[in-house]
Design a protein that fits this description.
Helix content is about 45%, strand content about 15%. The chain contains 16 helices and nine strands. The protein has helices at about 15-20, 30-45, 65-75, 90-95, 105-110, 110-125, 130-140, 140-160, 175-180, 195-205, 240-245, 260-275, 280-295, 300-310, 315-325, 330-345, and strands at about 55-60, 80-85, 95-100, 165-170, 185, 210, 215-220, 225-230, 250-255. A five-stranded parallel beta sheet has the order 2-5-8-1-9, sandwiched between helices. A two-stranded antiparallel sheet has the order 3-4. A two-stranded antiparallel ribbon has the order 6-7. A hairpin with a 4-residue loop joins strand 6 and strand 7. The two termini are about 25 Å apart.
Length: about 350
């Protein structure tokens, strides 16, 4: 951890919070954007209205937005968490939900998945959000967890008729990060359709903002940092809400990497242009480079680590192969192959 950028050196994190602080892998290289943001946030951290605590990263898929958001967690010494927005988000996805606690007798009569989900919620210690609990227990996506929470609310209400029941409030991941002072990555808020949801988010992002919960008013933790990441090319995305953009104190245009991922980018663009639906991102590149470093054939392992992840359709594979040739990358592959055979190692 780079002590140069620690924002609250006197703050003591719990063990659970410390586990959420991102640790940079050995492959991580600090970008110009990372250094610039860290320096700006640190410089303005105690300057009142000039404080930088809402950051916008806008760029194509694979440009490193999430990696940068995690790097800020490591540099600032703050826990990292994220929320992925979706079109049908409602206010309960922003603030959380109140859930009745039904009796154990009624609970045992429910379907096994619903019973397991409710038990996990009832036994949770509040450190995780409701969506986080359901994601872990049921192995579902955050979007599916949001829908499941609404189903559980209805189910619990139906099974508590005529009984005196206890009600518990389960905060959203946004509220948890907001209240506890984490780095929160808000992914793709520009896909949200409901204006009321965006208004609730806008209010929360005020530097002196608050969130009105059913049980209390939560004030923004002084360490809370919102990192908004957007990609305008996503289906269903629209320009970022002006009010939300106005609450950002620092923004970065994230460009795609160049030299080291030139081949991957050329292939990805060809895949998109020809409606090839598969995806091979930076992770695929790292696995490919690692395979080559371990002695695998440069060209052969490319298929197993990258191309076959994108598609196994013979016509689409031919399109990708043609892209390699047209961009002069096939020749580069052959040069790398020869270098590896000569030296026995993969040079950076």
């Amino acid at each position: 951890m780079n002590q140069e950028y620690i924002l609250s050196p006197a703050r003591q994190l719990t063990d659970a919070e410390q586990a959420l602080v991102w640790h940079k892998p050995s492959t991580h290289k600090a970008s110009e954007e990372e250094r610039r943001i860290c320096a700006e946030v640190k410089r303005n951290w105690n300057r009142g209205e000039m404080k930088i605590a809402n950051i916008l990263l806008e760029g194509d898929a694979g440009s490193g937005k999430t990696q940068l958001a995690k790097a800020l967690s490591a540099n600032f010494g703050l826990p990292y968490t994220k929320v992925t927005c979706f079109a049908d988000m409602d206010k309960s996805d922003i603030i959380g939900a109140i859930l009745p606690v039904i009796s154990s007798e009624r609970l045992e009569k429910l379907e096994s998945a619903d019973r397991a989900a409710l038990k996990a919620l009832y036994e949770s210690d509040g450190f995780q959000s409701a969506a986080g609990v359901l994601t872990d227990v049921l192995g579902i996506t955050p979007e599916q967890a949001a829908l499941k929470m609404k189903q559980l609310l209805k189910l619990a209400a139906e099974n508590s008729d005529g009984e005196a029941v206890e009600y518990r409030f389960y905060p959203s991941e946004i509220v948890r990060a907001y209240q506890m002072g984490y780095v929160l990555e808000i992914q793709e808020p520009n896909v949200i359709r409901d204006a009321a949801v965006l208004m609730a988010l806008n209010s929360a992002l005020e530097l002196d903002g608050s969130i009105n919960l059913p049980t209390e008013i939560v004030r923004r933790h002084p360490d809370f940092i919102a990192v908004i990441t957007t990609n305008r090319s996503y289906a269903g995305a629209r320009p970022l809400n002006e009010a939300l953009r106005d609450r950002v104190q620092h923004s970065e245009k994230m460009d795609l990497p160049t030299k080291e991922v030139m081949m991957e980018r050329a292939m990805a663009k060809t895949a998109r242009a020809n409606a090839i639906k598969g995806v091979a991102g930076m992770r695929s590149y790292f696995y490919w480079a690692d395979a080559v470093a371990g002695g695998a054939s440069v060209k052969e392992s490319l298929y197993h680590k990258v191309i076959y992840k994108i598609t196994t359709d013979s016509e689409e594979i031919k399109l990708l192969e043609d892209a390699l040739v047209s961009h002069g990358l096939t020749a580069s592959l052959e040069e790398v192959e020869a270098l590896v055979k000569k030296n026995g190692i993969l040079k950076p």
